[in-house]
Amino acid sequence: MTSERYDVIIVGGAVMGSSAAFWLTRMQPDLSVLVIEMDPSYAYSATALSVASIRQQFTNPVNVEISRFGIGFIRDLEGSLGREVGIPSLGLRENGYLFLAGTSGAAATMQEVAAMQRALGAGTEVLDADALAARFPWLRLDDVTAGSFGPSDEGWFDNMGLLNGFRLAARAQGAEYLVDRVTDLLRAGERITGVRLASGQEISCGALINAAGTRAADILRTAGEDIPVEPRKRTVFMIDAPNARHPDAPLIVDHTGFYLRPEGEHWITAIVPEGDGPVDPSDFEPRASDFEDLIWPRLYDRAPGFDAVKVLRWWVGHYDYNTLDQNAIVGRLPGLANLYLMNGFSGHGLQQAPAVGRGIAELIMTGGYRTIDMTPLGAERLQTNTPFAERAII
């Protein structure tokens, strides 16, 4: 049963919103926190439709630090959330990531970035073409100059396990969840005073967190604010390739534009579609032709074992895509003293949720970041149109 006022209202209850709820109630058990989620099945959330990967190989130090925190949290989920939550493991599979470079300039950049990643605790290795051929003899590497490989702390895990863990722990610590849809943010000057719901109810708050994913910009517009975040559609294919059975392969990010990773004896693959642009947040119609037209030719060029391929199924997920720089927008929105953003993750939100949820909670509870300084991801850069670019975008 909801009250009429909460210390913190969180709009969106998927992995970002639930992470914030978990950390807030962990830091201050008597804090009243309400999470408003319009679809408790999460069937179309980015969390549920993610390929559920985590990597250390980012080009900005803050993103590496966020992932370093995330891998520790995920690896020891029971210690992170508490044994009473009842989720002992997320089945983390540490096959690693392999980024392939096609030019000497890209290879030099890999060396520079890998040094930064290693300084922060990652195990990134940069391999030349001969070393790549020795480690991955099933790949065709005629056009590859180098590869950046993370042999540990990178891989994939149970996405819904992480979400459910955060939700269960947050609720056990006192957070409340309400099934409804926020139609308006209520504003008085430089403060958000509450929300109006589709049910007609109005609830006031001390602070508000926007964790609404692809609908984040729509929510903000009701308060006269805007951010450069829009839904982008990605069609993901699960395929069978009987002549390419490599269940221990890493997630490969090919310089020709696609990615590929094993899923048991099968594979998951996707590509940025031609003419990529905004879509309606309810548009989940797959682009089934993307595999045959865009992915398969590149895939066969990379590995001859993909000569015979069958598409087993496909699904569509959405990125909350930050059109400024494809990097997260985290922190307080300038001009509003009590509105906080967890938006624009552009496909990296699941792996960044443990650290970003903690960062937002620290910002609300203490007025600053304590664990990781996420200031570079702040919304101030939106006002000056100054990108904080992340070069390792997938």
UniProtKB/TrEMBL annotation:
The keyword Oxidoreductase applies. Keywords: Oxidoreductase. Residues 7-363 form the FAD dependent oxidoreductase domain. GO terms for molecular function: oxidoreductase activity. Transmembrane segments: none annotated. It holds the Pfam family DAO. Its EC number is 1.-.-.-. It is an enzyme of class 1 (oxidoreductase). Signal peptide: none annotated. This is NAD(P)/FAD-dependent oxidoreductase. It comes from Halodurantibacterium flavum.
